[in-house]
Structures are given as structure tokens and as C-alpha cells.
Amino acid sequence: MPALIPTEIVGEIVWIGRVPDREASLRSVAVEQAELTYAGIPGEAHGGLTRAACVRVRSQYATGTEIRNVRQLTVMSAEELAEVAADCGLPTFDPAHIGASLVVRGIPDFTHVPPSSRLQFPDGSAIVVDMENRPCHLPAKVINADHPGAGDAFKAAAKGKRGVTAWVEREGRIQVGETVRLHVPDQRAWRP
Predict the structure, then answer these.
(1) Residue pLDDT, tens place only, 98-126
(2) What does the alpha-carbon distance between residue 76 and residue 81 come to, in Å, rounded to a whole number?
(3) Which residue has the higher pLDDT, 97 or 23?
(4) What is the helix (H) or strand (E) element at residue 141, kind and residue range?
């Protein structure tokens, strides 16, 4: 039996972005298409084959230790972003405010897709879900720059709705409007 099981769940890419300079801002720049390389999306500040260990893995590694980069991409759900927007008092939510790489529509309970699930694109390229991306305070500054006060509500509003981090398993090209099929390691582990 294969370790990964294709599901009937097909989503759509509705937004692609990249963070050009993480030191300057968490804000993403929207693009219509992107190359997926083994190092992530070219020009993405979160890209690279390796990264320095941070607070998220402090129980395993000292800060700054070089480790495999499984946080190349931040993938969000359009439906969950709409819920976060409402909880922040906004009519819509711009994924650029939170450093998103991809926004998909049509995959239920997306933030809770099991780790090791794959999102596969029409050209065969695929990304691997690492884990739930926990909300933090960093997007507040970017959100507040455009919507004063709304960013203060982000961390609480995004709990359980912040999407996932992922890394590129097979290279290719993706574009807005394309479909994406979900493959999960065990269908019993996740029931949307």
C-alpha cells in the first residue's frame, strides 16, 4: 500500500507571493506564477535548502544551528483568511500582510492537514506540508500599517487558521488559477 493516499480534494491556487527582504518587512509581493525549486521560490527570503534554527526548534537545536529548511513556503487557505479578516474587523485579508507564499481555496480545514501531506500541481511538482504555522505577533506591524488597530487582533484571530509551512519535494512551475490535489499520509488521520 502506498504511504501517500490521493484524496478527491482538489483546491485552486488563488494567490502566489514572495517576501523579497525579510529584514525590511514580512510583506509579500504578489506574482501570477512562480518557479518551485528545491530551495523554494527564487527570491523568497524564507527560501534556501538550509536555514538557521530559530525559537520554533529550540528544544532540539541551539539558535543559529544550520538545519534543513522545511519552512520554505507559507501556505494559507482563502476560507480561513476570510475568517481571520472578519475576526480582525476587516472586510477582506491581504495575504501579503502575513508573508504568504501561496493561498489555496477549496481544501477544508486546511491548517489541520496532516504533516507529510503533499500538495501536487498539474505539472507534477509538489510541496510537502511540514506542520501548522502557528500565529505570531510579527504580522501585526504590517497589518497595522494599512489598517491601524486591525493587526493587534491578528494573533488571536489566526489561532488554528494560520495555514501550514511547506518545502518543495519536486520542482516545477505554478500559477494562479491552477488546481492542486491533496495527498495525505493516512486518511484516518484527517477528516475535513
Answers:
(1) 999 999 999 999 999 999 999 999 999 99
(2) 7
(3) 97
(4) helix 139-146
* Strands 33-36, 50-52: pairing kind: unpaired
Residue 144 CB burial class (10 angstroms; 0-12, 13-18, ≥19): middle
* Kind plus residue range of the DSSP H or E element containing 175: strand 172-175
pTM, 2 dp: 0.92
Question: Do the Cβ atoms of 72 and 167 come closer than 8 Å?
Answer: yes
pLDDT digits (tens, 9 = 90+) for 145-166: 999 999 999 999 999 999 999 9
- Please choose, from the candidates 105, 115, 97, the residue with its C-alpha nearest in 3D space to the C-alpha of residue 153: 97
- DSSP tag of 160: T
Angstrom distance (rounded) from CA 160 to CA 155 = 10
- How far are the Cα atoms of 48, 126, 127, 136, 137 from residue 40, in angstroms, in the given order? 6, 11, 9, 22, 24
Q: Cβ of 137: how many Cβ atoms within 10 Å?
A: 10
Q: Is the pLDDT of residue 1 over 80?
A: no
